[in-house]
């Protein structure tokens, strides 16, 4: 038997379908005995895994691992299983081991790493474990040889979603995952593509999946969403694609195919791509239920965008702010502030640019991060000239310093002066209080009025220093922050 484990990554109210393990389960369905254990639902996943090992002949524990809280949960559970059941092989897959394979493989309790897209790699790994093929022939696999030395095989070419079967939703209590959100009472999630064709210097997606994007056909996407609606009562969906709108013809066809489902939905897109869409396409997306779109605006400085290799301009971001307002779609703009090239200038120009966007479209949601690099292919330091020495084990990544770095709470970036960091953090508090996110469905009306009132004078006058009253108010109200929802 194979056990697929999704370690806890979020609070119960934020849990969503574990798409990563469902994708792996899809290729195991009808060919291997397997069970899914989800730490976001199971209060004691280690006990559940242990019962399966004691009841069945479990030969492999597959663990899906994202950086942050899930990595810590994966580390703790893997260590306990290895100690109690040393004969069970453990394989890690997902974003964390794909971007940091050497660190993950340095853990004594990890036997194999599946990098990037894992469906075919896992099937071939099972064949190798059963003596049917050589480990060194498996693309996308990292492992320890007979001498305990790490081996990293060549990368595996990516396949499109249509080349794999549907997720076996029946294997999970789907009703536990359709949680209320701003978009609906029963919000599902879906991944309609994999990869990203762009090369932003601070992003780890192409480090994990290369610089290609494979799209699911609109017909299949519509069929899966229809299944979630008719079988489980989904009324809304969040698309987890890095670029949901890569091509206008694809977006328009999909909008027409799902309009009848009456879903409200959220997705991610690029400002350069969508700024060129026709009014017809924007109107079709709105009719199809598009409610909010996340855009990586990243900076208010064109020179910083060039250094990031982002491939967009501030003018295109302004265009998106105008057009989303025209069609009644909420834009969610994300910024990574403090570019290592000139963090003070980038901060100054980006804060002014954010104010410009809010004036153009007050409904714009603003998400602010400190510039946080990840290792890049051919540039292992994310465009920061070797100023960061990356941890070499999961245990180091689990330390407070690196957890804060991973979650962008406090990166301790050597190029970011304390006064600049404080300015970014204080501005975030002021603008987040002046325009509390619409996505917090739990916050009472009075709390929003209080925050807006307290912050109005600061925002109007551009006074961001020492916002103590706003810090106290935010702690008292505990308003949801979109970038902190997994904590």
Automatic annotation (TrEMBL):
SUPFAM superfamilies: Cobalamin (vitamin B12)-binding domain (SSF52242), Radical SAM enzymes (SSF102114). Pfam families: B12-binding, Radical_SAM. Its cofactor is [4Fe-4S] cluster. It comes from Tunturiibacter psychrotolerans. Residues 4-136 form the B12-binding domain. Gene3D superfamilies: Cobalamin-binding domain (3.40.50.280), tm_1862 like domain (3.80.30.20). GO terms for molecular function: 4 iron, 4 sulfur cluster binding; catalytic activity; cobalamin binding; metal ion binding. This is Radical SAM protein. SMART domains: Elp3. Keywords: Iron, Iron-sulfur, Metal-binding, Methyltransferase, S-adenosyl-L-methionine, Transferase. Residues 182-412 form the Radical SAM core domain. GO terms for cellular component: cytosol. PANTHER family: ANAEROBIC MAGNESIUM-PROTOPORPHYRIN IX MONOMETHYL ESTER CYCLASE-RELATED, BLL1977 PROTEIN.
């Amino acid at each position: 038997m194979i056990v697929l484990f999704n370690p806890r990554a979020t609070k119960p109210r934020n849990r969503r379908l574990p798409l990563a393990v469902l994708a792996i389960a899809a290729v195991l369905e009808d060919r291997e005995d397997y069970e899914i254990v989800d730490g976001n639902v199971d209060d004691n996943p280690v006990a559940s895994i242990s019962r399966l090992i004691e009841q069945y002949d479990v030969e492999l524990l597959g663990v899906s691992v994202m950086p942050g809280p899930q990595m810590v949960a994966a580390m703790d559970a893997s260590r306990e299983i290895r100690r109690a059941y040393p004969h069970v092989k453990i394989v890690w897959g997902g974003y964390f081991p794909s971007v940091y394979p050497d660190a993950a493989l340095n853990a004594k309790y990890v036997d194999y790493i599946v990098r990037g897209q894992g469906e075919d790699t896992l099937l071939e790994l099972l064949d190798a474990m059963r003596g049917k093929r050589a480990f060194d022939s498996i693309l996308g696999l990292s492992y320890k040889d007979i001498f305990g030395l790490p081996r990293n095989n060549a990368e595996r070419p990516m396949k499109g979603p249509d080349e794999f079967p549907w997720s076996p939703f029946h294997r999970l209590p789907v009703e536990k995952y359709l949680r209320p959100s701003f978009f609906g009472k029963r919000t599902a999630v879906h991944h309609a593509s994999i990869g990203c064709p762009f090369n932003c210097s601070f992003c780890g997606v192409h480090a994990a999946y290369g610089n290609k994007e494979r799209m699911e056909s609109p017909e299949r996407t519509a069929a899966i969403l229809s299944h979630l609606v008719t079988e489980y009562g989904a009324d809304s969906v969040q698309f987890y694609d890095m670029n949901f709108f890569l091509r206008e013809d694809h977006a328009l066809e999909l909008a027409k195919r799902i309009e009848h489902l009456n879903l409200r939905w959220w997705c991610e897109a690029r400002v350069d791509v969508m700024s060129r869409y026709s009014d017809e396409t924007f109107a079709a997306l709105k009719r199809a239920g598009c409610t909010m779109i996340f855009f990586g605006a990243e900076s208010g400085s064109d020179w910083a965008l060039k250094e990031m290799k982002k491939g967009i301009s501030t003018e295109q971001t302004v265009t998106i702010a105008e057009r989303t307002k025209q069609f009644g779609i909420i834009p969610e703009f994300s910024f990574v502030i403090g570019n290592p090239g000139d963090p003070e200038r980038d901060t100054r120009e980006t804060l002014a640019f954010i104010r410009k966007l809010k004036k153009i479209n007050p409904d714009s949601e603003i998400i602010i991060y400190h510039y946080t690099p990840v290792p890049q292919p051919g540039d292992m330091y994310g465009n920061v000239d070797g100023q960061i020495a990356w941890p070499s084990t999961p245990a180091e990544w689990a330390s407070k310093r690196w957890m804060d770095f991973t979650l962008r709470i406090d990166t301790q970036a050597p190029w970011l002066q304390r006064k600049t960091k404080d300015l970014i953090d204080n501005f975030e508090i002021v603008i987040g209080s002046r325009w509390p996110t619409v996505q917090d469905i739990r916050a009472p009306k009075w709390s929003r009025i209080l925050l807006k009132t307290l912050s109005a004078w600061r925002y109007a006058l551009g006074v961001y220093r020492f916002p103590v009253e706003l810090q106290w108010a935010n702690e008292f109200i505990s308003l949801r922050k979109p970038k902190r929802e997994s904590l």
